[in-house]
Structures are given as structure tokens and as C-alpha cells.
Amino acid sequence: MGRAILSRLNERVIVYDTRQDALKGLPVTVAKDNTELVARSHCIILAIKPQAWPPVKQELKAEGKLLISIMAGVPIASLMKTGAKVCRVMPNLALERGEGLIAHCFSTGWTQDEIAYVLKLFMKLGRPLEVDEAALDTITGLSGSGIAYLLAVMRALAEEGEKRGLSAEQTRTILAQTARGAGALLEHNDFSIIEKIASKGGTTEQGLAALKAHGIDAAFRDVMQRTIEKCAALSRDFR
Q: pTM for the full model?
């Protein structure tokens, strides 16, 4: 995710990664450690896995800095122990195409100019959406991880399309455009649009009946529950 974010930014960027070889060829200044990174930065993007947070927390002395964290489950209260002003973010990988949902919430202490600066960064990644911190676990299921769940559904459809003679490229084109169209419809309608598409006795009605028979609603309830439970477990571990 860090590399995807980097690809969308045109600011002067300083980066530290424990895997220094991963930074070769990137148009960035490489810091020798987190201490140098913090000293040379006013805004820090923490693009690491939650499991990497405990050792990083010991090194990150960021009094008065702006700290943006994309870690699932690590709460603002824990991040503020660095001394920074914190913006906690739940993005998704579509940000590498400038189409991410950037759900975010701020700690106390931010000025309006600082918020405007961060929102300008987020606009380069997709659509910012400010929410309460308590909503981020649910948004992880809907968007952060949810984009993979939607792609998994599309992959299953693609496999059926290919079995019936379409090429892999054709199925990707068809499904990508169909997903864009579904998103556009949802922007301007509620989910009753499904019933408008599914005319009585038609093909869509038959397909939806198959989804219901196979328990799609129960499956996605379980998907959401497991995702949220994992977020909650991370929050307990990394307070």
C-alpha cells in the first residue's frame, strides 16, 4: 500500500523501509532510520502492517508532527503516544488508480490549515470521507478489505465467462465496466434498483434466486463479522 500511495504523490518524499533494497529506483530520498525520517519531515505517513507497530512506536518520537496511519486496528490513542497529531485512515488499493475511498478521522489539536493540507493529499488518492473512529472497523469490511471481496465475486463470474468461450481480457473488460456502472447507479439510487433490473420471470430474477439459494446474505454477514473481529483483536493488542 505504501508504494501505491507513493505513486500518486508528487511532493518531495523521504522514505524509510527496513528493506532498503525495496526502495531502489524510486524517486525518493532514503532515510537511514525512523529517527532521521521524523527529523526531516513535517508530515509522516505510516504505511506499515499493524504487527510492525510495537517496535516502530519505540523509535517514533514525533512531537508536534502530522502523523497519518493506514494501519488497521491501531487506535488513535496508541498513535498519539508518539506526540504527533494523528489522522487515522482506512484506504483501499484502488488509490493506486486515484479511485480509493479514503475514510479518515482526526485526533485533537489539528489546525484548519493542517487539515486542508492532508485532505489535499487524500484527493490525489481518491475520495476522502471523514468518519468517527468507531466506524473504521466496519469500513475495513466494506471498503479496505471489501474491495477484495467484490473482486472475488467478479473472479467467480469471470471464470464462468471464460468457461463459456470469452477470453480473460474480454471478461476483465466486461466486469470492470459493469462494476463502474453498478457504482454509478448506486451513487444515485438505493438498493431497490436491484428489483428494477430484475424483471419478473427474467434472467436476472433467476440468477438472484440462485444467489439466495446459496446463502449470499449469510456469507457476507460472516465476511463482515470476521473482518470486524480481526480489527477488534488488533485494537486490543496495540492499545
A: 0.89
